[in-house]
Amino acid sequence: MGIESLYWSSADQYKSAPSSRDSIGGDIRSVSLYQAGIPCYYTRLTAGETAAYGKQERTATHRLFCGMRDISTTDLWLIGGKWYSTVFPEDACSLGHHMEVIIGRTDAPEVVECSSSSSPSSASSASSASSDSSESSTP
Length: 139
Known about the structure:
The chain is mainly β. The chain has a single domain (3-113), classed as Bacteriophage SPP1 head-tail adaptor protein (Thrombin, subunit H). It has 2 helices and 9 strands, in the order ββββαβββββα. It has helices spanning 47-52, 120-132; strands at residues 9-16, 20-21, 27-28, 30-44, 62-67, 76-79, 82-91, 98-105, 110-113. The strands form 2 sheets. A 6-stranded antiparallel beta barrel has the order 1-4-5-8-7-6. It has a two-stranded antiparallel ribbon with strand order 2-3. The radius of gyration is 15 Å and the shape is globular. The two termini are 24 Å apart. Residues 115-138 have low confidence and may be disordered.
C-alpha cells in the first residue's frame, strides 16, 4: 500500500503571474491556475514545527503531502476554500517518490487566468469563500 492511499483531499496549485498595479501604483499579487484537483494529504504543524520554520520569510502552518511535481516557493495552494503559500517544498527523503511541502495560510490573491479545467467564476467564488471562512475549521 503506497502513500497515495492516504491522500484524502485535493488541492489546486497556482503559479505566480506577471504582477499588476493598483490605482495608486502598489503591486497586486496575481496567480494563474497551474493544476487543479491534485490528490493530497495535509495536516497542521505542531507548535514545535511552527517554531522551527519560524526563520522562514512566511509563517508555516501546515504540511502538505502530494505526488512528485514542480513546486517553487512562489506557488500558492487552494485547499478547502483557503489559500496557502509555499514555505518550503522538498522531495521527501530525496527518493523521488512524493513531495512534502510546508505551507502557510495567506490572503487570497488576484486570479488572472484559469486553465480549461476550472472556470473563472469558480476561481473567484473560491477566492471570496476563503476570506469568509475561519481558520478554526482547517484540519
